[in-house]
Amino acid sequence: MAITADDVSLEDIIPISLDFAVVEVSSSEELAVVGADTKMKVSYQEEELELRLPFGSHSRLFLSEVNRVWSDVCKTTTQAPKFEWISKYHKATRGLGTTVNKLNQHQKKEKSSDKKGTIEGEKGSNSGTHKSKAYSSPESQSIFSREDRNDLVRSSSHTPSNKAQILAMPQFGLRDNLIRCELLKNEDLYTYPEDFSFFLGTYNVNGQTPKESLSPWLSCTLNPPDMYCIGFQELDLSKEAFFFNDTPKELEWTKAVSQALHPDAKYALVKLVRLVGIMLIFYVKKEHAEFISDVEAETVGTGIMGRMGNKGAVAVRFRFHNSDICVVNSHLAAHIEEYERRNQDYKEICSRLQFRQLDPSQPPLTIMKHDVILWIGDLNYRISELDVSNVKELIGKKDFETLHSYDQLKRQIDEEAVFVGFAEGDIDFQPTYKYDTGSDKWDTSEKCRVPAWCDRILWRGKNIVQQHYQSHMALKTSDHKPVSSLLVIGIKKVNAEAYKKTFEEIVRNIDKMENECIPSVTLSKREFHFKDVKYMQHHAETLSLVNDGQVPCQFEFIQKPNEPTYCKPWLTANPSKGFIAKGGSVDIELEVFVNRSTAPELNSGKEQIEDILVLHLERGKDYFISVIGNYLPSCYGSSIHSLCQLREPIQDMSQETLREVAKMSGGENAVNTEKPLDIPKELWMMVDHLFRNALKQEDIFQQPGLRSEFAEIRDCLDTGIPDSLPGSNHSVAEALLLFLDALPEPVVPYSFYQQCLEICSNASQCEKVISMLPQCHKNVFNYLAAFLRELLKNSASNRLDVNILATIFASLLLRSPTKQDLAEKRKTQEFFQHFLAQGSS
C-alpha cells in the first residue's frame, strides 16, 4: 500500500514536543555574510545534535514547517505521535521513520561530548534566521554521514499538501523510475523557458596572491548577472598545497572575488570547491537562492597515477528551477607537445567525475547527464606549427581567425577527439598566455613561450546565447590573463497547475497498465565471452533489452543467495537497474575491469573470469546471464615473492606453475628448486630504464604518462616482447608507481606498518626495521631507495627534492592496512626520508 499525503505530515515524522528545542548557533559574523550556512543546535530530551543547513528552497521550507508545527504543539497539548504511517513503508532502508522509532525507544542517558555530531551541509546561505525545531538521537549520528545527510536536510523539507507532488518524492517509493521517466518525457507540457544570465570566468593566477581589484574582470557587464561561476587554476604552487591540499590563498582569492562582484546586486555564495590549486566558486543573486537545489560538488585528479591534484577538475552540479546544470573547472596537462595528454585528461574527467543523487537507489550522475554543461579553465591547448615570431606577427595584425586555425583545441574538436557537442564563441582577443608577470609583455624568459589561448570557456546545451567572450588585459597579477563569458540560458520553469495535471494523468495510466499486464523483455543474448582480459584495460559488451510486453517494466540485477553484490568485483552492469517504456529498449554495458584489488586472485588462478547475473523484472520473471572469459596473468597485482620465483615473463608460465608459486608466496609447502631472483625482473627493467634515460628528466614522477603507453609497457613486462620498454620516460615512471601500488603486500609488509610509525623519528631504528624485512622485500626497498638517491643528485635538472619523493613513494612502500589519516601519512613520509639522505645505505 502506498503512502499518501493524508498519511504524512511533519508532526507525524519528527517527535516535536515540549522536550524538543532548536537554538540558532551561527555567530553574528556568520549571519552578516550573505551565503553563510545556518547552524542549528537541536535537542530532544537529553540528546543534542549540531547541524548546518544549506541555503535554498528545501531548507527554508523545512525550517518554516518545523516552526509551524512546534508553535502548534506549544498552543495545544497533544498525544505522543504514533507514527502509524511507518507500517505502510515497506522499503527495507534506514529511513527517517526507523530513526524516529529508535529515538522514542531510547532511554535517557547522561550527555557526553562524544555523542554530539555535526552535519555539514553544502556551502551556502539561509537568508533570514529561524528559531525552528528539529530532532536528534545517538543513532542518527551514525546514520547522517556525508552520504546520507540529505535525508534530513533535503528530503524532510518536502511537506506540500499537494498529493501529486508528495507521491512523486523518491523516498516514498511509488514506481519512482517510471514516473520520473514519464515526467521527463512530457516535460514540455508543464515547463516554459525563461532567460537567466550566467557570468563565467577563468583565471590561472600562477600561485600569486591578489594584488589588484578583480572588478575590471568580474564587474565588466552593464547589468548584474544572475549567476557567477568563477574558476581559478594554480591558486597555490607550494608543496604544502600539493601534498596536503591546504592553502591560505583560498580565503584571499575568495575575498577578492566577493569584493569585485557586480555592485548593483546582492549575491549568495552557493558552493566553493577546491582541489589543490583548482578552485571553483559559485554565486547566485540572492533572490534566486530559493530556487537552487540538489547542489553537489566533486573533484578528480588527473596527475600522476590519476590521483595527484596538481592537474584535474573540480565541478558543481545543481538544479535551478527545472534545469540540471553542471559547471566544470579544469586544469589539463601542460607543454605544447602534450595535446594527447590533454585529450586523455578530458576523457578521464568525463568518465571519473560522478555526482551522487538524492535518491540513493539511482546511479551517480556523470557530467554529460545534465541539461546544461559549462566548462571553464586552463585547458592548456597551444598553437602548433608556427614559431613565436609568426604567432606574434599575426597577433600584431589582429588576424585572430588565421591564428585560431593553428589552435590545438580547435583542431581536436574538429576531429571530434574532445568536447563533442560543445560550443565555443568566436575568439577576437589576443592569446592569454604567456606574459611577464606584472605587465602586458610577452614572455621574455629563456624559454620564450609561444603565445597561446590556454584559458577557455565552452558550453553544451540548448537555448544558450553568448553575449560576450573576452580577456581582461587590465589585470597583471599573473602570467595569464583572465577570461570571461556572459551566457544567456533559457532555464526551464515549472507551471504548477500543468505539472499537477500531467503527473496525475501519468499515475492514472500507470495504475491502469499495471492492473492489466505482466511485464516481459527480450534479451539480445544470454552468454557473454570476454577474451584476453588484461590488467587495467576496459573490456565491454552490450546487452540489449527490448520491452515486448504490454506494460512499462522495471528491471534490476539482483544478488544471488549468500553473495554480497549482484556481480563479481571485476564486473559491472551499467545501468544495473532502470525501466523501459512499452515498446522501448535499453542498452546495458557489461564491463570487465581488473584493478589492483581483483588482480591478485586472478593472477594466482584462485579466481576466474566467470559469473552468473540474475536480471529481475518487477512483477515479472528472472533471467540468467552467463559471463565467462580468460584473464592474462600480469606482474601487476602479483606479489614480490611470486615474481622473484619467475625467471621468465609471467605470461610464458603455465597456470599450474603460477598456482604453485602462489602457494609458496602464501607460506604453503611447495618445492622450489631454483634460487629466487634478488628483485622482480619487471621492477629492475623499469628502474634500469629510468636510471639510464630519466635521471635528468624534468618533472619525472610528477607528470603523468599516457594510458596507451602504459598498456604497451605492461604487455612488454608480461610477455618479454619487445626487449626494451616502449613509451616516454613519464609513462615508464608512472608504470613503476602503478606496479608498487598494485602489490598485494606492500614493500614494507603490513605487519611492520605500526612499528614503522612508532619509530619514524629515529633513523637507526628505521634502518633496523628494514633489516628485518623478508629478504626479497628488503632488496626491493633498498634498491628503490638507492635509485631515488641518484635522482636527487640531479635535482637541479629534474626539479625533485626529498619532500616530493617521500610524499610519492612513502604512501606506496609503506601502505596502511586500513584508511590512512593525515598524521599517519606524515609519519610514513618522515620514516622514508631517512633513506633518501645521501650516504644512507
Automatic annotation (TrEMBL):
According to the UniProt record, where is the region Disordered?
Answer: 97-160
Q: Where are the transmembrane segments?
A: none
Q: Where is the composition biased (Polar residues)?
A: 124-144
Its cellular-component GO annotations read:
cytosol; early endosome membrane; phagocytic vesicle membrane
A Pfam cross-reference name: Exo_endo_phos2
**Family matches, as InterPro entries:** Endo/exonu/phosph_ase_sf, Ig-like_fold, INPP5B_PH_dom, IP5, IPPc, OCRL-1_2_ASH, OCRL1/INPP5B_INPP5c, Rho_GTPase_activation_prot
Q: Which SMART domains match?
A: IPPc, RhoGAP
EC code(s) of this entry: 3.1.3.36
| A Gene Ontology molecular function term of the record | inositol-1,4,5-trisphosphate 5-phosphatase activity
Per the record, the domain of life is Eukaryota
Q: What class of enzyme is it?
A: hydrolase
Family per record: Belongs to the inositol 1,4,5-trisphosphate 5-phosphatase type II family.
Protein name, please?
Answer: phosphoinositide 5-phosphatase
